[in-house]
Amino acid sequence: MECSTIIAGFGGQGILFAGKVLAEAALGEDLEVLWIPSYGPEMRGGTAACTVIVADRPIGSPIVDRADHAVVLNPPSMAKYTPRVAPGGLLVVNTTLIEAEPGRDDLDVLEVPCTALARTAGDDKLVSVVALGALLGRRRFVEPASVHAALARILGSKRPDLIEMDTAAFDAGYEAGLQEVIA
Known about the structure:
Blueprint: E1 2-10, H1 15-28, E2 32-38, E3 47-55, E4 67-72, H2 75-81, E5 85-94, E6 108-112, H3 114-121, H4 127-138, H5 144-156, H6 163-179
Parallel strand pairs: 1-4, 4-5, 5-6
Antiparallel strand pairs: 1-3, 2-3
Helix pairs in contact: 1-4, 1-5, 3-4, 3-6, 4-6, 5-6
């Protein structure tokens, strides 16, 4: 098993954090991981992205021409990364901010109101954690318990007060991924 995921959105939406949580969760399952952040001066407000590759064997290359999954949290990310998803791949779309259709009929499109669910879980800033939950609800290549443990490890020493809220946001997204919430 080897799968690649692109997570993209505005800087400040927790894009790199979600990728780090996914990578940490996979490491907790003794899987091979590459986490590749991509940002520049657009870190706050522009488009930021990261690619996470998870495998059960050594990863041969960090280059991802066609991703297995893409999580797009804003319109510019949808325009930029939808073409990079392999046919049959999963596109998780944040319908709170994106109204456009992906323009491809060869993808599994999961439409989830990520920002609205994050707000319900306690904070708009948790949008990427909700989206990560939706991704893993639809394509379970890392276990939810591993994500819970990763959130506790990452937040535990610096922000233990956020663990419960982040876990609730992930769980809300995971349920949405299982049920395919369409907004």
